[in-house]
Design a protein that fits this description.
Radius of gyration of chain A: 20 Å
Strand content of chain B: under 5%
Oligomer: heterodimer
Distance between the termini of chain A: 37 Å
Number of helices of chain A: 14
Number of strands of chain B: 0
Helix content of chain B: over 70%
Shape of chain B: globular
Strand content of chain A: under 5%
Largest sheet of chain A: none
Structural class of chain B: mainly alpha
Number of domains of chain A: 2
Largest sheet of chain B: none
Order of helices and strands of chain B: HHHHHHHHHHH
């Protein structure tokens, strides 16, 4: 690191300062990852295996039927690719940080983070970056491209831009819900289970929304909006949307989740009384 | 004879202590049990949607809707009763932190000690999970099918206990890799991925092409989860069922010998870091 980049966070202000800090944090994470190269590759294999496993599941189902609701085989494969893409982005940017929150509280490291001259939510959410998950998104992109070719899609630039923006909304939903769950560890110290619990929700995100009806559909759309995260970007990209209201519901729910997580976070921080002393 | 009883009493105490420690995690267990129901529910809804587009009485593979749902419900039960949840991480941590040093000095066998804790752990988990799982089963009761015969029920219970033992021994051996590598989590997750698909967690294995299904029955994976379910539902019967139980037993013996072997090699290369 050159001297200029190291002092940059001290002299910059506002969002540029945060950008500088984030750059330094990312650099740090990459250096740490590269110290354990074998482990890095093994985690990539783990991610690929689980991804392959989901596609196998869908292939087995489609060897016995030719549609699930209105969804054809390659539409669902595209959806699994998209769900995985969004999930991996979420992993890359946020997941490890949030699962460590309960550890920070238990060991008292959170006290130290609160003293630093940066926004604590920023630090808790973005302290480490997971390079491996960025690499894993490539597999997800490859699957989407393959499914797209099989579906003979001819996407325009608008579809790529729209898909990217809706994916960001999807990541925001994952992030907000996970932060809300992790905030519970402010009250019960043993909260490792919460992160594990969230993994089960990913299972819902990669299924076609046509599989859910009535109460379940409402629950997984408006209470825990897992059916919006990947389904809406996919439906937009493969031109399967029934109405623009679906896009609006994704944006609204992403906003609502962010707001809820901010309220929860502020409430938790306000009532935080250190663990060790 | 007295020595034999002393052994029982000794590990009885371990189970007792294990139960008390595990009770501290009861909320975690409850949380885990509830969240496990979400992917299960998603799978059941998925199959219901697929079947709803088929004609009345149509089959997928050799399953109608209630048989399919029963399959998943039974997998849930077997999984709750036999799956290892924290044991492997704890064993790996014991090795990394040097805690196992004390077992090299105590007149206590680490494998038996761990197995006693596994029993305690499962007991509490089953008690805690009874509430959410019970409610879920009650809700889905229309899809519940009875065992094909009394014999099938008894043998599926036998196979279920073999499944539990096999689960424990394989996780134990995987965790012992911590003697040689810093992070065992990746290896455990790779094995778990295979178990998830080849064990029949995601879908019944007889939906696969026959050659692949036959091949899988020679691997340990189906015996880690779905084999007791297949016996219960009458998917394997007669000679095939007995053969399966034999293969399961053989894998169990192999797993036990491997666990002993790996442990012996492990403590030889163990350097008691931090101990």
């Amino acid at each position: 690191m050159s001297k200029e980049t190291r002092i940059a966070p001290l002299i910059e202000t506002g969002w540029r300062r945060y950008l500088c800090i984030y750059g330094a944090l990312c650099q740090n994470s990459i250096m740490r990852d590269m110290q354990f190269k074998v482990n890095f590759v093994l985690w990539l294999i783990v991610e690929l295996l689980w991804f392959g496993l989901q596609i196998t599941f869908i292939s087995v189902i489609y060897s016995h039927t030719d549609h699930i609701g209105s969804w054809s085989r390659y539409e669902v494969i595209f959806l699994i690719g998209a769900a995985n893409f969004i999930q991996q982005l979420f992993h890359a940017v946020f997941l490890n940080n949030i699962t460590q929150l309960s550890e920070h509280i238990r060991t008292g490291r959170l006290d130290f983070m609160l003293l630093l001259p940066v926004n604590p939510r920023f630090l808790v959410s973005l302290r480490t970056m997971d390079l491996g998950s960025y690499v894993s998104t490539l597999a997800a992109i490859a699957v989407m491209v393959y499914a797209g070719i099989q579906l003979e899609l001819q996407p325009g630039i608008i579809h790529f831009v729209g898909f990217a923006m809706m994916s960001v909304c999807g990541v925001m939903i994952h992030y907000s819900l996970m932060l809300i769950l992790a905030s519970i560890s402010f009250w019960t110290i043993k909260a490792e289970g919460f992160a594990w619990g969230y993994y089960n929700l990913f299972n819902v995100a990669r299924l076609p929304d046509a599989a859910f009806k009535g109460g379940f559909k409402a629950f997984f759309t408006f209470a825990i909006p897992m059916l919006l995260v990947a389904n809406i970007p996919t439906k937009f990209f493969i031109q399967k949307l029934q109405s623009p209201m679906e896009i609006l519901s994704l944006i609204m729910m992403a906003g609502a989740c962010l707001l809820a997580s901010e309220i929860m976070w502020r409430f938790a921080i306000k009532h935080y009384t250190s663990a060790s002393s | 004879m007295i020595k034999f009883w002393n052994e029982w009493i000794k590990y009885g105490h371990v189970i007792n202590v294990g139960i008390q420690n595990t009770l501290a995690y009861r909320m975690n267990f409850l949380f885990r049990a509830v969240f496990t129901l979400i992917p299960l529910l998603a799978n059941i809804l998925l199959w219901k949607t697929i079947f709803s587009d088929k004609a009345e009485g149509d089959m997928i593979g050799a399953y109608n809707l209630s048989q399919m749902v029963s399959y998943y419900l039974l997998i849930l039960i077997v999984n709750s009763m036999t799956a290892v949840n924290e044991d492997d991480w704890q064993i790996a941590a014991d090795i990394r932190n040097g805690v196992i040093s004390q077992f090299l000095l105590k007149p206590m066998d680490y494998l038996t000690f761990r197995f006693s804790l596994f029993l305690a752990n499962r007991l509490i988990y089953i008690l805690v999970a009874t509430i959410p799982v019970g409610l879920f089963l009650l809700w889905q009761r229309n899809y519940w099918t009875a065992p094909v015969s009394m014999e099938a029920l008894m043998l599926s219970i036998l196979s279920l206990s073999l499944t539990g033992l096999l689960q424990f021994l394989i996780s134990f051996t995987m965790a012992l890799l911590a003697f040689w590598v810093l992070e065992v989590a990746t290896f455990i997750f790779i094995l778990y991925a295979f178990e998830y698909i080849a064990g029949g967690h995601l879908f019944p294995l007889d939906l696969l092409p026959t050659w692949l299904e036959t091949l899988l029955y020679w691997t340990p994976f189906p015996y880690l989860l779905s084999f007791p379910v297949l016996i219960y539902l009458g998917r394997v019967e007669g000679q095939a069922m007995w053969n399966g139980i034999l293969v399961q037993t053989v894998w169990l013996v192999i797993a036990f010998l491997t666990a002993r072997f790996v442990w012996n090699r492990g403590i030889r290369s163990y350097t008691a870091v931090g101990g």
